[in-house]
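subagent[fold] <- orchestrator: predict structure for attached chain, return tokens only, no commentary.
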Amino acid sequence: MDQTTQTKSAPATGTTRSRLIEAGLDIFGECGYTGATTRMIADQGGVNLAAIPYHFGGKEGLYGAVIDHIVTSVRGQLDPILHEIEDRLGQGRPEPDEAQELLEKFLGRLVDFVVGSKEAPRFSRIILREQMSPSSAYDNIYEGIMRPILVMVAALLAIITGRKAGADRETRLRAFCLIGQIMAFRFARETLVRNLGLQGYSPDETAEIHRIVMEQTRAALFGLKNQAGAK
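subagent[fold] -> orchestrator:
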């Protein structure tokens, strides 16, 4: 990421600051950090170019604010179920059936957000760019979104499959597979739209994907539990 001189920001007016963050979501998502210019973002936001160094210290500061906005927004959608699961695990190890109910509840919420929300397409463009070519900003994405999700899914999966507390490497890989089946609908959206003639994604399409992901998840867990019982 290019280095910019950070200056102390004056108290921001919410309208100008939020306009720039919203514009940054679109421009950084479409052009990447290197391809985006402060002029493009200011024009998109309908604000004076000087507002960017005034509120954010420069292009890098604005990009960081956009990443913060993504993390805060995603956590706002997922925190209720994450906190519910964390609270339950804090009370002691649940039975496998209860752990599976919690896992299915979380994955269902993840489908609704990743596939069905209006924010997901805008967020995913930047997240995918960071996955492919991570900058220092990816630390925020990983620690704020990815790591908590992976840790929680792996912890539940370990309980469901009868493994010891403290998910091992294999359990974490399997947890990634469960999450990845959902992320694919966002990051490979255009392939599915063309292959099935979808709108990408209507409420009915989202509901259908939700059902299929749940069926796939239950089938996978059934197989893993049988495999664990055979050992």
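orchestrator: received. Logging for downstream: DSSP finds ten helices and no strands in the chain. The chain has a mean pLDDT of 92.
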